[in-house]
User: Which sequence fits this backbone?
């Protein structure tokens, strides 16, 4: 990458990390909000569901806006919106105001994935590697963001902590203003793509149209479907289901297994902070952290082989690891090894998946394609939480991981179908 590309990657990776930092700091703050607002877990659950729901549902309109107005303005708006939302959280006097602040965060954050991924796919030649570094930023936010929030809450009032969390978004936005962006679609720089861009209705070099209309959205959607994008969408939906089904109750599963294998007490079990220092949570952080290596590996693979073929192999590996999870709980070494291997494999999928979306979508509908993608991953994929909870309530971990293996197998089949029946656009 040249210097300009590295700056774009740094800007998007930092923004990605902050999106997930805020996303996963909210569950940490719930334990404080229950007492602060004299409410119930059920009421707060509704508040968080609204915020997370908007985070997923907003990806599609976010993608539409990306194709019309460009990625950088929307990323900057996302960062400003998230910072403002957490400042409002820190000042919230009542539960309705808190709910409004969390909803504002969800709306602001929802535009990030279509904007950030569209920008990388159009501005960086080594697309897979760029997606890998972008994913590393997200993983660091996923793993270290909630940990930092929990540690800060031990020393400072939650209002001060949430106000302080707004500062990194302001800093990254200030850096982003200085980043030069050229969305000329270097990843799709063939002659046909260049001609298509030159013939865009508004004469712009990136193929965006001048305004948002139902007709233009419908036309872009038909363009995606004509190339077999529905098969790509099926894959990302299965990957999103696996992701959410696996991770939702993983801290509890890890804690239960480790509690039966070893007796490790970081703090007194009667301490009010005992849950925050449960050893299972630290293994959970480790699983998310090794995902950094998975993101890097996935990015490198995507630049060397057709990404859809890599996805077929990775989903097959995830199916096998899911079937090994319960048998591996007999010993600490095998259990930790399989858990960490799942973390690496799970996040290796992401750059390959993003590279596949980019390869099977035209430049002028790239934002829309990622909008549909993340509506599937975060929207339909959110059903994985309900699926996991239902299976664990009515059956147990063994059945849960069998279902995960089935989801991964369906993902492998859909990735194979992409390579056989869909049409590459780059």
Assistant:
């Amino acid at each position: 990458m040249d210097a300009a590309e590295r700056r774009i990657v740094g800007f998007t990776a930092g923004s990605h990390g902050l999106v997930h930092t805020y996303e996963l700091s909210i569950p940490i703050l719930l334990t404080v909000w229950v007492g602060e607002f004299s409410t119930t877990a059920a009421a707060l659950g509704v508040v968080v569901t609204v915020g997370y729901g908007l985070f997923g549902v907003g990806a599609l309109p976010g993608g539409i806006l990306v194709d019309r107005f460009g990625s950088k303005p929307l990323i900057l708006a996302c960062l400003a919106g998230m910072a403002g939302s957490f400042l409002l959280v820190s000042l919230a006097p009542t539960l309705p105001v808190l709910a409004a602040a969390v909803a504002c965060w969800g709306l602001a954050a929802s535009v990030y994935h279509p904007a950030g991924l569209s920008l990388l796919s159009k501005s960086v030649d080594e697309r897979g590697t760029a997606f890998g570094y972008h994913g590393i930023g997200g993983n660091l936010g996923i793993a270290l963001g909630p940990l930092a929030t929990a540690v800060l809450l031990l020393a400072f009032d939650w209002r001060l902590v949430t106000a302080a969390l707004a500062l990194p978004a302001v800093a990254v936005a200030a850096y982003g203003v200085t980043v030069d962006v050229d969305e000329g679609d270097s990843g799709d720089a063939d002659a046909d793509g260049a001609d298509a861009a030159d013939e865009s209705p508004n004469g712009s070099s990136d193929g965006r149209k001048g305004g948002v209309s139902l007709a233009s959205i419908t036309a872009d959607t038909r363009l995606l479907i004509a190339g077999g994008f529905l098969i790509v969408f099926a894959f990302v939906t299965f990957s999103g289901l696996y992701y959410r089904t696996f991770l939702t109750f993983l801290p509890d599963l890890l804690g239960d297994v480790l509690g039966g294998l070893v007796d490790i007490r970081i703090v007194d079990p009667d301490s009010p902070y005992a849950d925050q220092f449960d050893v299972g949570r630290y293994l959970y952080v480790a699983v998310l952290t090794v995902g950094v290596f998975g993101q890097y590996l996935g990015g490198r693979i995507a630049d060397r082989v057709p990404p859809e073929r890599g996805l077929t192999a990775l989903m097959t590996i995830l199916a096998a690891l899911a079937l090994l999870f319960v048998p591996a709980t007999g010993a600490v070494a095998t259990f930790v090894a399989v858990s960490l291997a799942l973390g690496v494999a799970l996040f290796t999928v992401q750059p390959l998946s993003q590279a596949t979306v980019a390869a099977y979508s035209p430049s002028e509908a790239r934002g829309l394609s990622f909008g549909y993608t993340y509506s599937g991953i975060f929207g339909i994929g959110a059903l994985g939480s309900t699926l996991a909870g239902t299976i664990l309530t009515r059956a147990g971990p063994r059945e849960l991981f069998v279902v995960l293996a089935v989801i991964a197998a369906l993902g492998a089949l859909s990735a194979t179908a992409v390579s056989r029946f869909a049409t590459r656009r780059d």
Notes: The CA atoms of residues 75 and 112 lie 6 Å apart. Residues 186-209 have pLDDT under 50 and may be disordered. The two ends are 20 Å apart (CA to CA).
